[in-house]
């Protein structure tokens, strides 16, 4: 729909004094379609991984501390102490200090041991 924001808001042509008919349902449907496509494109890049207690994970370092491309990108490894039903995990930062962490496959990559790699490659 080729219309200015003012024409959409006031339902009048901004240059000529003419009414401008807006199909808001069509506009909402087109915007929702764009959101759905963008969401699907983002989710296609995700890796589905089931975290389990005892697994080791890395956590992305705070981006505000990263000043050069040679800085450390990940912290860890940290052991998973508890897996929650909503997708969060509790990791052990240091002995006696537990921290809840929201798991995102891009934000908290799992570490795979050499035994697990050889088992998955051979099958």
> How many domain regions?
2
Sketch the major β-sheet. 4 strands, antiparallel
What is the CATH third-level topology name of the largest domain?
SH3 type barrels
Shape: elongated
CATH class of the largest domain: Mainly Beta
Strand order, sheet with most strands: 1-2-3-4
Q: What is the terminal-to-terminal distance?
A: 53 Å
> What percent of the residues sit in helical stretches (DSSP H or I)?
25-40%
Order of helices and strands: HHEEEEH
Radius of gyration: 24 Å
Unreliable residue stretches: none
Report the β-strand fraction as a percent range: 15-25%
Q: Structural class, from helix and strand content?
A: alpha+beta
What count of helical segments does DSSP give? 3
Report a brief summary of the structure.
The termini are far apart. A hairpin with a 4-residue loop joins β2 and β3 (88-94).
Descriptive keywords:
123 residues, alpha+beta, SH3 type barrels, 2 domains
Description:
It is a single chain. This protein is α+β, with helices and mostly antiparallel strands and 123 residues long. Helix content is 28%, strand content 23%. It folds into two domains: 5-43; 56-122, SH3 type barrels (Roll). It has helices at 5-10, 24-43, 114-122; strands at 56-60, 74-83, 88-94, 97-102. A four-stranded antiparallel β-sheet has the order 1-2-3-4, with no helix packed on it. Strand 3 and strand 4 (97-102) form a beta hairpin. It starts with a helix and ends with a helix.
